[in-house]
Design goal:
Layout (H helix, E strand, L loop, with lengths): L7 H13 L15 E4 L5 E4 L6 E3 L2 H10 L6 E4 L8 H5 L7 E2 L8 H7 L3 E5 L6 H6 L4 E5 L5 H15 L2 H21 L8 E4 L7 E2 L5 H8 L3 E2 L11 E2 L2 H7 L3 E5 L6 H5 L8 H4 L3 E4 L13 H12 L6 H16 L5 H4 L3
Parallel strand pairs: 3-4, 3-6, 4-5, 6-7, 8-10, 8-12, 12-13
Antiparallel strand pairs: 1-2, 9-11
Length: about 350
């Protein structure tokens, strides 16, 4: 049983939420006479005559920013592919079943985009080649998600989207929550010298690993660990390696995503993994959550910071403290909370 620990930073977060939280409403953002001019993440100047109100997208982390900013489905009229989503959207988007699927990548159905009545497409840098195709149907597109993953990337995405929606204040509140979680972790870890080595595996293969230039590495370090992976380069995607390399890294802890194609038992019972410290000591954990990934470049990465801290240093930050911050985040963003069982937290 972990001892419950309270720290002043938690009080700061509570104050931040109570003083700044905006209620989620279905009101349309008031139009202004001044056009909105922004520079997106690939350096394009995008001019909108008024704030966007009807968004389409093809990439889940990018679409997630719209869900977060709208407190649900307020701004979405078209979703790339609903198979990309987890269980969260059914919980927070009242009209989720009615959202038009427009496809993704080369399979986009632009007739569906037109039928959705969108006034803006939001894209990640990796899909920037789609911009001209959206422009051909007279739909402006803005690239809001950089391929270089970091906490700053997440804040930049929310800030840009806040500008095009006329929701700057809400974007500031959500990015402030992420900053508060990072500050909390830093404060709790200030006297800690123990930094376990962590291997963060990809979803599609237990031999795929997160290199330095991914949000997973940021989570490991913010939670008080070090990335076991070294000598492997890549940006925005997991890298396939062999079991001999993983054995050589010999991580203390292994995390794998809740949306993976394999299980904890697959790892623990594989004899080729048996010499690894994390396997021998059963320090293998499913990284939450069942409702939405906390390890992707979305606003919920703030909760990924919290879980990383809880997983690696439960003596400093226990389950009760984790759930307090989880409740604060979902109350801020969606005006509701979820149980440990719904989220798959143990």
């Amino acid at each position: 049983m972990f001892k419950k620990v309270f720290f002043p930073v938690v009080l700061v977060v509570t104050f931040l939420l109570s003083s700044c939280m905006m209620p989620v409403t279905n009101e349309v953002v008031e139009e202004t006479d001044n056009p909105i001019v922004i520079t997106d993440v690939i350096g394009r100047e995008v001019i909108l005559e008024k704030p966007a109100t009807k968004l389409v997208g093809t990439h889940n982390p990018t679409l997630n920013a719209a869900v977060v900013m709208g407190g649900g489905g307020k701004y979405l009229v078209g979703f790339g592919n609903k198979e990309m989503s987890r269980g969260l959207y059914e919980q927070v988007i009242d009209s989720y079943d009615d959202l038009i699927q427009i496809g993704k990548g080369s399979t986009i159905n632009f007739e569906s985009v037109v039928a959705a009545g969108a006034d803006l497409a939001i894209l990640p840098e990796r899909n920037q080649d789609l911009v001209p195709q959206f422009e051909e149907i007279n739909l402006p597109a803005v690239v809001i998600l950089d391929s270089t993953e970091s906490f700053e990337t997440v804040k930049q995405t929310l800030t840009l989207l806040g500008q095009v929606l006329g929701e700057d204040e809400r974007a500031e509140q959500i990015t402030a929550f992420l900053d508060a979680q990072l500050e909390q972790a830093q404060t709790l870890l200030k006297d800690t010298t123990e930094r376990p080595s962590v291997l963060f595996l990809g979803a599609s293969s237990q031999l795929s690993v997160a290199p330095a230039a991914m949000i997973q590495t940021s989570l490991i370090e913010a939670g008080g660990g070090t990335n076991a992976v070294s000598g492997v380069e890549g940006t925005g995607s997991f890298i396939e390696v062999n079991i001999e390399q993983i054995v050589a890294w010999n991580p203390d802890v292994i995390w794998y995503p809740a949306y993976s194609d394999y299980t904890m038992e697959d790892l623990l019972n594989d004899p080729t993994w048996s010499s690894i410290n994390a396997i021998k000591n059963k320090q293998v954990f499913e990284f939450p959550s069942l409702l939405e990934p906390w390890d992707q470049p979305t606003a919920a990465v703030a909760l990924g910071v919290d879980y990383a801290l809880y997983s690696l240093h439960p003596d400093l930050y226990n389950l009760d403290s984790l759930m307090q911050d989880v409740d604060a985040f979902y109350t801020l963003v969606y005006g509701k909370t979820f149980t440990k069982e719904q989220l798959g937290i143990k």
